[in-house]
């Protein structure tokens, strides 16, 4: 059994459920609260004999429970280096984009990142939260009290202001009937969110001094740095072994046995013959 001590909130005291304690501290400026497994420790905290965990609602750099509680802190971020970030610009198929997350539990830290070509910043913000929740769910952490900190008001408002539920009711369309971008991803996120009964989301100012946000921003930029813009695919995606990778158009080549253009037909025939001998070229392939 856990005890939730609220030292500063709408109502102070010790509560035996998070739902009851959350009502006293959520949105309350400068709320101070902490969870304990031993009631006597909760009482000591309530009387000011133990240090507190506090946060200020609505502030950019929110402080949350850390390793001395059972709560989990989650940071997510998404970014893109594309023309879609410029007014009047459009995303190109070889523009880089990436997502990243950092999960802080009482005993460990976990982080991950991935990338796509031709994706928008908003898509990566959604993807970051989805991937983080999928990780937590896969590791049976979905029932924990989770504080998600993100700098995307687009994602935050969609969840906290119930836009997501409205889109779902209307068959995944916007209020005016317009097309909903990233519909399938939003649908997947909505499904994942159902698994998290104690998830709270908070906004933090991006590129500021929130250490968690700075970490995930750096991580996703490292992912984009490693992405090769030669082929529009997910950064971690592997080419199927039976399918040769497409060669990018380039003015340079590393081939040393180039043939004159008038020998092209003969060269193709020779290649086909060699592939047939190896069993890699089948005219009857379905």
From TrEMBL:
GO terms for molecular function: metal ion binding; nucleic acid binding; RNA-DNA hybrid ribonuclease activity. Residues 233-242 have a biased composition (Polar residues). The keyword Magnesium applies. PROSITE patterns: RNASE_H_1 (PS50879). Gene3D superfamilies: Ribonuclease H-like superfamily/Ribonuclease H, Ribonuclease H1, N-terminal domain. One of its GO terms (biological process) is DNA replication, removal of RNA primer. Its cofactor is Mg(2+). Residues 68-225 form the RNase H type-1 domain. Keywords: Endonuclease, Hydrolase, Magnesium, Metal-binding, Nuclease. Its EC number is 3.1.26.4. Monomer. Belongs to the RNase H family. Endonuclease that specifically degrades the RNA of RNA-DNA hybrids. This is Ribonuclease H.
């Amino acid at each position: 059994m856990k005890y939730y001590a609220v030292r500063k909130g709408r109502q102070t005291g010790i509560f035996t459920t998070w739902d009851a304690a959350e009502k006293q501290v959520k949105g309350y400026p400068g709320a101070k609260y902490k969870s304990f497994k031993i009631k006597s420790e909760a009482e000591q905290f309530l009387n000011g004999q133990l240090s507190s965990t506090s946060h200020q609602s609505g502030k950019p750099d929110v402080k949350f429970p850390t390793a001395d509680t059972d709560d989990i802190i989650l940071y997510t971020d998404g970014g893109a280096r594309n023309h879609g970030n410029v007014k009047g610009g459009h995303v190109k198929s070889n523009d880089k984009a990436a997502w990243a997350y950092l999960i802080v539990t009482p005993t460990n830290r976990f982080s991950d990142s991935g990338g796509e070509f031709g994706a928008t910043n908003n898509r990566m913000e959604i993807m970051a939260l989805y991937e983080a929740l999928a990780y937590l769910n896969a590791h049976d952490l979905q029932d924990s009290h989770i504080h998600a900190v993100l700098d995307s008001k687009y994602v935050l408002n969609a969840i906290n202001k119930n836009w997501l539920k409205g889109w779902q009711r209307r068959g995944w369309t916007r209020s005016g009937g317009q097309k909903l971008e990233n519909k399938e991803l939003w649908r997947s996120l909505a499904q994942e969110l159902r698994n998290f009964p104690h998830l709270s989301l908070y906004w933090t100012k991006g590129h500021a001094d929130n250490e968690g946000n700075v970490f995930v921003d750096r991580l996703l930029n490292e992912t984009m740095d490693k992405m090769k813009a030669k082929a529009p695919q997910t950064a971690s995606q592997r080419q199927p072994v039976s399918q040769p990778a497409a060669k990018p158009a380039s003015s340079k080549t590393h081939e040393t046995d180039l043939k004159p253009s008038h020998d092209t037909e003969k060269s193709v025939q020779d290649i086909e013959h060699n592939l047939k001998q190896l069993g890699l070229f089948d005219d009857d392939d379905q």
